[in-house]
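Morning - zinc ion inputs below, output right after.
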Amino acid sequence: MKATVFHEHGTPDVLKYEDFPDPDVGMKKVLVDIKAVALNHLDLFVRRGIPGLKLEMPHILGSDIAGVVKEMGDGVSAGLEIGQKVVIDPGGSCGVCEYCVRGEESLCADYGILGEHYRGGYADFISVDAQNVIPVPEYSELDFNQAAAAPLTFMTAWRMLVPKARIKPGDSVLIIGIGGGVALAALQIAKIAGAQVIVTSSSDEKLEKALELGASIGVNHSNNPDFHKEVFSLTNRRGVDIVVDSVGEATWEKSLRSLTKGGRLVTCGATSGPKAMTNVNLVFWKQLEILGSTMGSRSELREVLKLVWNGKLKPIVDRVLPLSEAKQAHEILEKGEQFGKLVLNP
Ligand SMILES: [Zn+2]
């Protein structure tokens, strides 16, 4: 088969489109003919190299996969058939530890992500555990590109807002840096939960598009570096109930200052760097909660995908490129030029 691989960590130039051995199907595994694979920021981090993460080279990136079932190994039970349209749950866990038994797979010590800890979907085919294969129901109108854009971002945003930040109707939510996949998923989830949403971006064009998707107010944080002051005046000096911040260092302190008393800041990443300042006085006096969140559980993914299949939540695709042009796709994502997901077609 063809795959886009890298033999060493580095810039987008290390990505090579080349021949790679076809995967074996194996016991309780399913061979999926990949039709689309969506990019995540994770792909950039893994390509550059993550301290402590040792990969078997060459590595294949790609966590968000849509395709059709091509072959099933022995021991695959009911629910799947050849030719069926599917997406893949990117999470892998031991299945037996206290967290897995509790249904909290993303807390498992052996938790791994397709495309990060295991070879992923920048390829013609992939062999994955049958339990990770999720059928796309026939009533869904999504094409392969939209389906591939769904799992990781919607799973991540759902866990952040629903189980972690306990969003409820009437809440006000501030989303930092609209335009990325998780932020756009969070905007849509907050809207269907009945919340009012304020978004920030350095691009007026992205703010415009976010208003079309249901955001109430857009704040340009380039013209308005003290965006927390703007948030306070927009909320009658109350502040918001929830802040979704995956930027980290650059915005952390202002994100905390944007919260109302008893507010919750939820983070799933730190794209600007991890060493942020926290004013502890602010945390105890305003009784704030700082919540960390990573990916989601198997059941959370299936829960949020129901809303994707029935059209209540819509994966936003920025553009689609051939798999052989993964390098260009990485360059676009590094510049942050996209609004929605970049998708590759093998
Ligand atoms: Zn486990």
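Note: The radius of gyration is 20 Å.

O.
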